[in-house]
Protein: Putative citrate lyase beta chain
Organism: Rhodococcus wratislaviensis NBRC 100605
Amino acid sequence: MKSSNTIDTWTDESASGGRSQELPYTVARSWFLISGASDLPQSLGSGSDVDILDLEDAVPPGKKLAARTEVVNALHHRRAWVRINDVTTVFWKDDVAALRDSPGLLGVMLAKTDSANDVDTIAEGLRATTPVIAFIESAAGLEAAGTIAAHPRVGRLAFGSGDFRMDVGAGTDRNALTYARSRLVVVSRAAGLPAPIDGPTVPDDQILAVDETEYAAGLGMTGRMCLHASHATTINTALSPTGREIEDAKELITLLGPDGANARKGSDLPRLARARRVLDRARMFGLDALAPELH
């Protein structure tokens, strides 16, 4: 089982929406995709937990070189993740070579990861400390998800829902992708990874963003990508413990004792572990008033 304790954080308060400390990528909820071909100084600091500078789908082939240059320049002034092109393209080698020594690189997101060998291919060109998030976007990738998740350089999985839907010919009903999402949750847990990141929100539909994010959370996903900065708060709220969940967790821990000394049934200790996770997440997300330290 891999440990998910190796984390990286953002500490630039001025560039992080006013937060004094950024979240570890292992628990980050909202992941805002920003085209590397856009005006990056204007785009960064979105209010999301993580900004992703995208060199893949958001950049046409003719603009890859210019976008890569812009991203590398931006990483000299602040820190971010970067989504690179997949290993079947002619672009990934230059992506990796340009990013390897970028001072602000937090990690690399590999598009269209179909096997653990894909991770090996790019990892050879990266620093040993650079984590990789693998995007699962095809039937082949989903079948290999267990071995991909077990790769020592993979820190988390993400679901490329749009490309996956096209690859397998699935309909638009969200239930058509329930198996895929659930499989990513299960293999992540089995490999000792944090729960996976769901595919991006539809840019112009706030109500749908809430509904779909809550659905993904119900399946066990704890992060989601977004294509519009306004969805970051929506995602963060949907993927944070509610006030009721926090209160229930506090009451259960008081009843059973912080160490479970008052447990009487076989289900008490698993319930206690879940309650402690709820409060840990609440504190991490800044809900300290609702989740004070237990003594």
Notes: Residues 243-284 form one domain.
